[in-house]
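Handout, tutorial session.
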Amino acid sequence: MLREDMRTVFAGDPAARNMLEVLFCYPGLHALWNHRIAHYLWCHRLRLVGRLLSHANRFATGIEIHPGAVIGRRFFIDHGMGVVIGESSEIGDDVLMYQGVVLGGTTHEKGKRHPTIADHVVLGAGATLLGAITIGQRARIGAGSVVVQDVGPGATVVGVPGRVVTGRTPSEALEHGRLPDPVSEAIGHLVDDQSGLTERLRRIEKYLDIDTAEKKPRKVDHKGMAQG
């Protein structure tokens, strides 16, 4: 499993050059290994020890993973600083997570209150997922998105609050620079509509033989009678 984790780093980060570099210089990998030990202790009712190890893990890597969180195989946290994974979070296999991602809760009640992430999901930098929601297989969560509702398999979500913008094929990776921008698209539609209305008004004025450039204000005399 350790070798598999290291191969996952090479598959997920083109900057990885050799085994020694991955072994000593990847905090996401260290955080995952420490979490597995902390989770084992947590499941065997050594919860204080598990929490202490988790706390040390946070201090050493900048990644906070509650020992109660369930994480699958080939999970890769790229860079990792600022990542928070809550107690009842569940993460499937082959999930890629970038820095600053938060899997948080929305209630103080005990029980399931954190997200469930299915297999092959990509979570963009700074994404925040809140509550006992489910992110379907091969979904893509764009950088900086805030997600508070379930996301279907294969969907791409961007924005605050998160909105599904398009479906993606299973083999397509999340490219942050090519994500659609719903706000920009909406503004573009408004500009197009305004241009169309301006053109229609120009045609109407031409049809009525009105020259807006030669319009003069109407004069009004002291008796209030219109002149000109």
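The second record follows below. Compare its token runs with those of the first.
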Amino acid sequence: MTLNKLFDLSGRVAIITGGAGLLGVQHAEVIAESGGHPVLIDINEKESLQKAKVISKKYNVNSMGIKTNITIKSEIKSMLETVLEKYGRIDILINNAANDPKVKDNDDNKVWTRFENFPLENWNQDIAVGLTGAFLCTQIIGSEMAKRRTGVILNISSDLGLIAPDQRIYAKDGLPDEKQPVKPVSYPVIKSALIGLTRYSATYWADKNVRVNAICPGGVQTDQPKDFLEKLSYRIPMSRMARKDEYKGAILFLISDASSYMTGAVLSVDGGRTCW
């Protein structure tokens, strides 16, 4: 197989959860650029439809957006039926959706993000989207792939699936410890669990020709405060955060035939952060 053919996704259909989000759109674009048909599923119907329309026009592929709550099993089943009716196949699943609880400053003299104060409601919501949603999509869509004896699943973990958050990068001068903002506990727990889901499903369906891998990306630079960027960049060997389009190559590698002998693997793409 030629090198170009290894990375060719022509005619393949890919479901992307959280497809209307920042990286969801990037994943969809790399699929479209390689000839595939990205299906953007998201709780935000307007955004998923609009972004799918833009991708279809820009790359001359048949992209679509579908409103789906991935915490509800019946909605995932309905979405899959719609995809199969339209395309007749499903080749790729990217479990990308996640709540990303932000580090926030003091609120009413109590920092809700701190471990001691973290609300059970927030924990349950984050787990429902980031982990239960990935489990349900893998269970339902992966079963369809196993039945067809072909498919690729990619779980979007994080560098925080491999290491603990360094809370020092969020620290504010002059605040006592109990009032310091921190990265909430739910995010790294979910991203670590996705690695476990990856390994379990990779071995479970290996004989059905369904490959399952995970990628652990570092943070993407958007509009973060300067002091945060400086603190984080100091802890990354490449001394910067990622650009939003810098994961495209790794994503394409992991969902294409270029990685045909990889399953259960965890690929770090983090500027070297997890080396330290």
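Points raised in discussion: The mean pLDDT is 96.
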